[in-house]
Amino acid sequence: xxxxxxxxxxxxxxxxxxxxxxxxxxxxxxxxxxxxxxxxxxxxxxxxxxxxxxxxxxxxxxxxxxxxxxxxxxxxxxxxxxxxxxxxxxxxxxxxxxxxxxxxxxxxxxxxxxxxxxxxxxxxxxxxxxxxxxxxxxxxxxxxxxxxxxxxxxxxxxxxxxxxxxxxxxxxxxxxxxxxxxxxxxxxxxxxxxxxxxxxxxxxxxxxxxxxxxxxxxxxxxxxxxxxxxxxxxxxxxxxxxxxxxxxxxxxxxxxxxxxxxxxxxxxxxxxxxxxxxxxxxxxxxxxxxxxxxxxxxxxxxxxxxxxxxxxxxxxxxxxxxxxxxxxxxxxxxxxxxxxxxxxxxxxx
Length: 349
Known about the structure:
Blueprint: H1 6-20, E1 31-36, H2 57-65, E2 70-75, H3 77-80, H4 90-105, E3 109-114, E4 119-120, E5 123-124, H5 132-142, E6 152-155, H6 165-181, E7 188-191, H7 210-213, E8 224-229, H8 246-263, E9 267-271, H9 278-292, E10 298-306, H10 326-335
Parallel strand pairs: 1-2, 1-10, 2-3, 3-6, 6-7, 7-8, 8-9, 9-10
Antiparallel strand pairs: 4-5
C-alpha cells in the first residue's frame, strides 16, 4: 500500500534544515549524546535537592567536552503541572529553563522528555481525567516557552506503556496540534507504545501495531521523527547485567529502518545502554555504528544514562572520581566519526 503523505514528509525534511541546522551545509548535524537523568527521580511530591535533581553544569560540560551535541532531559509531568489543565509550576519550569540554557551555552541541543510512560500520577492516558485533551493542555502550556528554538526538541512522552497504540495516537495528535497552535515549530519526537521498543514495533495489539497505527500521526508542519528505544539484554528491558541479544537488537532496528524508508519517516534512538560486561560493550559499539551508518533515516542517538545521583547503577555513564566509564570509552569513537566535527545527517534536512 502506498502512503500519499510519504512524499510530503520527505520534502518536509528540507524545511527542517532552516530550523535545526547549526552549520551552513544542506543536512543538519547528527544528534549524538546522552540521557541526563535525575529530574524524574522520586515521587511527584518529592523535594528538589532531596528526592530529585537536575544535571549540574559540570555534568553538562563533561559530556559536551566528549564531543556530544545533545542531551535528553527526563522530568516528571506531575511536577511541572501539579494539577491537570492547571498552570505550570514556575520553580520547576525555571529549573528546566536553566538546564536548557546551560546545555545551549555548551553547544548542546536539549530534548525535553516528560518521563511518564503515558501516565499521570499512575493513571494512564485515556482513563478518567487523564485525557488526550489534558495532555494537549500540558503541551500548550510548555511549548511557548521554547518555541522556535533550534536547540530544543519536544519529545511527547517517554516510553508509553500499558495503553494501546490506538489510544496513544489520539494523545499524539492532540499534543502535536497543541504545540503547533502555540506557535512552536520545534522538532517533535513521537514514541510508540510497548516502551517504544524497536523489538515491539510490529507486535500485534488491539487496534493495530505501532507500525500500523502510527502511520496516522498528523503534524501540520511535518516536523516530527519517531523516538525509538532498544536494549540488548535477555528481555530488551535494560535491567540485566549482560547483553546476550545484541544481534536480535540490531535486527529489530533494521526492521524499523525498513519501515522508515517505506513510508518516508525518520527516527532517533532515544535510549540504548548496557553494563560494562564485554557483550554489552560490544553491543553498544555495534548499535552506535549501525545508527551512524543509517543517516538517511536516523538523525542520531542518546545513550542511557548519566546523572550525578546514579551511584553504582550498572548502566551509568557518569564518571566516577574523574574516571570515564567503560561504556563511554566504547561510545566515544562513534560520537564524531572523523574525530573533528559532527557529520551531517541527510534525515535532518
